[in-house]
Design goal:
The protein is of the alpha+beta class and 172 residues long. The protein is built from 4 helices and 8 strands; from the N terminus they run E-E-E-H-E-E-E-E-E-H-H-H.
Length: 172
């Protein structure tokens, strides 16, 4: 089951009443000049023995270097993702100075191709906050549903009451 499941966290903030979402841009030479439809929610596959929430937290920290506060979080459900995976996403409110360097894990890749030289590239090369309209343009198509769900949950009802009704998620 674990190899077909991905989990992630969507950090959001209200900036002068405007909802903004933190999205991540993939690192490596294949994504260097790609923008619209290449950004995404920090996420990844589960490791053996992990719960879905534990995997979401671990992946978020590995990819962004940000330690999330999930005291109040919103489960945005699941949806089909790339590579026949099921994505599970939670949203939480927070903030981050995106001018700080991204503290992402790295992956090895032979580059240039067939050169015999293996280099390390960051899994995520940048993170940034986007308005809902911008995020809808930037994010991978498979993840659009999570933006829509968050927008409905936060902006479709009284924001403060929504947070107070959320169950606390235990995480280690």
């Amino acid at each position: 089951m674990h190899h077909n499941v991905s989990a992630g966290l969507l950090l959001y903030r209200l900036n002068t009443g405007r909802l903004e979402l933190l999205l991540a841009h993939p690192g490596g030479p294949y994504f260097e000049n790609k923008d619209d439809r290449y950004w995404g929610i920090p996420k990844g596959h589960l490791e053996i023995g992990e719960t879905i929430v534990e995997g979401a937290v671990r992946e978020f920290i590995e990819e962004t270097g940000i330690n999330p506060d999930l005291t109040y979080s919103i489960y945005l459900g699941s949806a089909p993702g790339k590579y026949k995976r099921i994505l599970h996403i939670w949203a939480f409110e927070g903030n981050w100075d995106v001018s700080k360097p991204v503290q992402s894990n790295a992956f090895p890749l032979e580059w240039p191709p067939q050169s015999g030289q293996v280099r390390l590239f960051p899994e995520i090369d940048k993170i940034d906050f986007f308005s809902i309209a911008e995020a809808n343009r930037k994010i991978e198509r498979e993840q659009l549903v999570f933006i829509n769900r968050l927008e409905k949950r936060l902006l479709g009802s009284n924001y403060q009451n929504q947070l107070e009704l959320l169950p606390k998620i235990a995480h280690g």
